[in-house]
Design brief:
By secondary structure, the chain is mainly α. It contains 10 helices and no strands.
Length: about 240
C-alpha cells in the first residue's frame, strides 16, 4: 500500500492542492491580521480557519483526488490495483495526510504570530487546537470524496462550507453540540476560549467546560472508521 500511496503523491506532484495546503492558511492569517490587528490575530485566524478556510481547503483537496480519476472512470487504475477497496483507502490516506499538513502549516503560522505579535493562545493550547481540528474534521473526508464520486466536486465544497458556516455555528453552542459537523466548533470553545461567532468566551460560560473534548474526539474517530469502510465497500462496486 505504501507504494500506491507514493504513486498517488507523485501523481499529484504538480497539482494545485500542493499549493493550496499552505496558501489558504497564509491567506487566512493575512486577512485576520488586516481585519483584527496584531493583538487578536491568533483567535481571529482560528475562528476563520475552522469555520471557512479549513473546510474549503480539505474539501477541495479530497475532491481533487477523485475528480481527475472520476473523469476517466478510473480506467487503467483497476488493472494495477486488483482490490478496488485498497485504491479507495490509498486516496483516503492521501487526503488525510494533506489535511494533517495543512493543519500543521496553520499551527506553525499561528505560533509565529504569537511570537512576533501577541500570544493570545498559549502554545500548548495552540497545538491541542490544531490536533483536535485535524482529528474532528477527518471524518468528513470519506463522505466528501464519495459525494464527489457520485455527484461533483462543487457540490462537495458547497455542502462542506454550508455545514461549517451554519450547522456548526448553530449546533455548537447548544446541547446537541454532538452533531458531527458541529463538534470541531464546540471543542474549540474550551481550548482557544473563543465562540464560533468570534467573541471571546467568558470564564464562567458553560461552553468553557472541557468534558466535551474526549467524547467529541471519540465520535469523530468512529465516524472516520465507519465512513471509510462504508465508502470503500460502495467504491468496490464501481463499474469500469
Amino acid at each position: 500500500m505504501a507504494d500506491y500511496l507514493k504513486a498517488e503523491f507523485l501523481k499529484q506532484k504538480r497539482s494545485f492542492q500542493n499549493v493550496i495546503l499552505w496558501l489558504i492558511p497564509l491567506i487566512n492569517i493575512i486577512i485576520s491580521l488586516i481585519l483584527m490587528g496584531p493583538e487578536y490575530v491568533q483567535t481571529a485566524s482560528y475562528n476563520w480557519w475552522y469555520i471557512l478556510f479549513l473546510p474549503f481547503t480539505f474539501t477541495y483537496i479530497s475532491a481533487s483526488l477523485i475528480k481527475r480519476d472520476r473523469k476517466y472512470n478510473f480506467h487503467g487504475l483497476f488493472g494495477i490495483v486488483q482490490d478496488k477497496k485498497q485504491l479507495w483507502y490509498v486516496k483516503l490516506a492521501a487526503a488525510t495526510i494533506y489535511l494533517f499538513l495543512s493543519c500543521l502549516f496553520f499551527l506553525l503560522l499561528t505560533i509565529i504570530c504569537g511570537v512576533v505579535f501577541h500570544q493570545q493562545i498559549p502554545v500548548l493550547n495552540n497545538i491541542a487546537a490544531s490536533a483536535v481540528l485535524f482529528i474532528t474534521f477527518a471524518w468528513q473526508i470519506p463522505l466528501l470524496m464519495y459525494m464527489t464520486l457520485r455527484f461533483n466536486m462543487y457540490l462537495s465544497i458547497i455542502v462542506s462550507i454550508f455545514c461549517s458556516l451554519f450547522i456548526a455555528c448553530i449546533c455548537a453552542v447548544e446541547s446537541y453540540w454532538w452533531v458531527p459537523f458541529a463538534i470541531p466548533a464546540r471543542l474549540m470553545c474550551p481550548i482557544i476560549k473563543v465562540l464560533p461567532n468570534g467573541l471571546l468566551l467568558s470564564p464562567d460560560s458553560p461552553l468553557n467546560r472541557s468534558n466535551v473534548i474526549v467524547p467529541g474526539i471519540i465520535i469523530t474517530i468512529l465516524l472516520y472508521l465507519i465512513l471509510s469502510a462504508a465508502t470503500a465497500k460502495l467504491f468496490e462496486k464501481q463499474e469500469v
